[in-house]
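Consortium newsletter contribution from the modelling node. Members have asked for a concrete example of what our holo predictions look like. Here is one, prepared for the acetoacetyl-coenzyme A complex that several groups have been discussing at recent meetings.
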Amino acid sequence: MVALKVSKSGGLVVVMLDDPPVNALGHAVRTSLRDIFQEAEADKETIAIVLGAEGKVFCAGADITEFNKPPLAPVLSELLASMDEFTKPVVAAIGGAALGGGLELVLACDARIATPKASFGLPEVKLGLLPGAGGTQRLPRLAGAVAALEMITDGDLRPAQTALEMGFIDQIVPDEDLLAAATAMAISLVKTGRRRVSTGRMDAAQWPAFEEAAKAILGKQPDATEMTAIVESIRNSFNLDFAAGCRAEQALFQELRQGERSEALRYAFFAERQSARVEGVPSRPESPVERVTVIGGGTMGAGIAMAFANAAIPATIIETDEAAAARAIERIGGIYDMSVRRGSLSVEGKATRLSCIVAQVGLDRASEADLIVEAAFEDMEVKRAIFSKLGETTRDGVTLATNTSYLDVDQIAAFSGRSKDVLGMHFFSPANVMKLVEIVRARDTDPQALARIVDVVKRLGKIPVVVGVCHGFVGNRMMARRSEQVDRMLLEGATPVQIDAVLTAFGFRMGPCAMSDLAGLDISWRMRKATGRKAPIADALCEAGRFGQKTAGGYYAYPEGSRTGVTDAGVIELMEQVSAREGVTRRALDDREVLERLIYPMIDEGARILHEGIAARSSDIDVIWLHGYNWPRGRGGPMFYAKQVGPKIVAQQLEAYSAAIGNASLRPFEGLVELLR
Ligand code: CAA
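And here is the predicted structure:
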């Protein structure tokens, strides 16, 4: 049988899903399962079926790659409906994760026996979907409407013990007893008969609590169509019988599947997994990182050391003197304390992590590690001093990484005299939280060094994206194009409130003006001064001492220490003065223009980045924006969005804006349409 192992003994058929890597329920698996059930029904000798799986994952659910094409019969809901008609008992034996359609498959069985390693989840919501094979109908009937609603809307895994307590599995047995226990259960069900999930309506007594929970969930995410669909579908379990509820669920599922939001979320799922694959770089390193040294114990260095400690990789922080070393440890302790207070870390967890971090003075101890991450100031002279010293004091083969956001990694590599060992690791702040690491491959970086860093970044639970050397790499380089338009549109007549509102309506959690106020306007002001660039509005704000939240205000005012900005009449006046000084007549910009001028130049820069080979694939650019810059996940990423809008339209609009405002920097890259087609 395709993707299944089938054995028969004493009237019992044992079916094992066997389709690595995750036993997804693709068309071939569904067809094979249908055939087995048909054969077992016809075969008089067969008395029951035990359904298990090979591998660590019991079943990851539907094959998501099939969702971009029209569904192929039998679809999972049809297969499970036919299992309902099956007259002999079916017992699921679950020793790994049962997700999505994988959980729905086992819910369609008569009993579920699991091992302590098993876990259960309905993660469809993370793909902008609802469970489409009876999950919203069976789970409430087994576990109660509120518990089902929580599980389906958070999409998270439940361990076996929780599943048992929730009432949707029957028994937990040791790993080695799984098949025997499932067989025993099947034989006992042969005597007592099938035990299907009730097909009647849900008990109305659960309705008020369900409605209250649903209202709270929908209130938090009013725009997520999948949430509304989930609530509607579980509501159906009260109002409709089981078969009608399943039909309605399937209709909702198909509607969501064909929507742009789910398409974007599915795309993001695969894009994230692909970014770790780098052409010409081995998928496993010859010698993985076991110890790290972090040079600098400031905010960034401390966060990086914590990221390693959180993954149980010992980290040594190097500081310039004892006081700074002590401050670094204190800072880290303070951050862990905060997590303990919030309940996200136990006291023991904090102690284990802290025991992984030491802080020392002097670069000499750095050589004990197999990876050294430099997180000192963003200044070429500082980097020169550190990398030339590291080149002398560390052994050949120790990977030397610079944590830089902008600087030329080829130049830094040259300081070390061992450029094959050098690369960039651009962590995002706070480094212990943010998932993205741009790994900057320099001209001479050895593929083994890259493999080692890709591997360790994955072990940190982060997402690696390999990029090439250029100013700002991928993320900051594209961001610069957006920032340029923010300033330009403020000069032409837009307001900070309008610009921020347009991007938050698009899905960003924060707009660029509020974000600059939070991060501080002075950092980019200093950088502009150093490179001779100008941003008339932002420069004027900085000249007026408005660096953002940390001073009197920035684009907004922050009365009485508030963290929410309000419009400042003084800023509007200042912008008017700057526009007059620059000879720009202020006008009202409509929201569409604002949005397109914020997003399309970024897409254009992305196309240039692809053309130059700084990023290997457009999905890598999207992963960077999703995880480093808060791009709304339901919109896939800037390059995915470009394809949804149509590259031709992006190019035409850029051309039109460029002509209208006489700003050549908006002119699209000539290969844009071809590259993004
Ligand atoms: N369909 C197709 N491919 C899948 C898949 C799925 N459901 N789940 C995982 N894969 C692929 C991954 O893309 C990856 O492929 P590559 O090696 O080519 O990159 C491979 O399987 C291994 O996956 P991971 O790298 O993620 O492995 P992991 O061990 O870290 O995690 C997992 C395993 C927990 C199962 C994780 O892959 C996962 O969460 N998968 C998605 C589960 C999911 O969302 N299921 C719901 C599907 S929708 C559904 O079922 C609808 C319905 O109601 C009918």
